[in-house]
Fold this protein.
Amino acid sequence: MYKDGNYSKGCIALELIEGVRTFSPIENFSENQMLQVLNALAKLQVQFLGITEEKRNKAPHEGLAGLYFHFKDWFLALNNELMAQFPDPEMQKLSAEFKSVLPDMISASDLDKVTVKLGMEKVLVHGDLWSANIMWKDDDKLAKLIDFQVIDLENDPSFTVILFQMIHFGLAGTDLARLFNTCLSPEDRRKNTDTYLKYYYDSLVNYCKEDNNGKVPFTYENVSQN
C-alpha cells in the first residue's frame, strides 16, 4: 500500500474487545469520564509532537479543509434534515438549532488558518472524537479511543508512520469542540467548559514535561479563547 504511493488503497483492522460499551449522543458523560478522555487526548497529542514535517504530510487529510472539502453547505443542510426525522425531541431541537446557525458557521479553511495566526503548533487531531468512538469498561474506566489508526513501520525508514481515518494535524480545539458538543448537555458545557479546558491543558503540560522537553505547543489562552 505505502510502497507504490497509492493512498487510495487501504486496509481494515479489526479487534474483538469484550466487556466494553459506548454511549449514545444523547447520553451525558460524567465529570470523571470527561477528565479521563481529556487526559488520554492530551497524552496522544504529545506523543506525536516530535513527528517530522515530512511524516505529517503523509496524513490522509491536509487539515479540516482537506477532510471536509466535499461537505458543502447544501450537503450539511441535507444531512441535518435527515437527522431531524429521528423521533427524538432533543435531536429535532438540535437539528433546528443547527439549521439556524449554518449560514454563519466558519469554514474549515478558515479554521485551518487559526494555528498560523495565533502561533500555535499543530497537533494530531483524531477528527471524529465523539461518544460512539470512546469505549468504557463496566467500572466506567476508559478502555479505548477508537476509529483511528496509526501504524509504525519500523522496518521501512522511508515511511515510518501511516495515519488513517479522519486523522490530520491541525487545531487542538477541533477534537475538544466535538467532544464537548457530543458528550455533554448544553447545561454541562456552559457550567464546566472552563474547568475541563484547564484540566486538559494541565495534562498537556505535564505530558510535555515527560516527552517533549517541557515545550508546550500553545498557550492556555490559545485554547480557552478559541
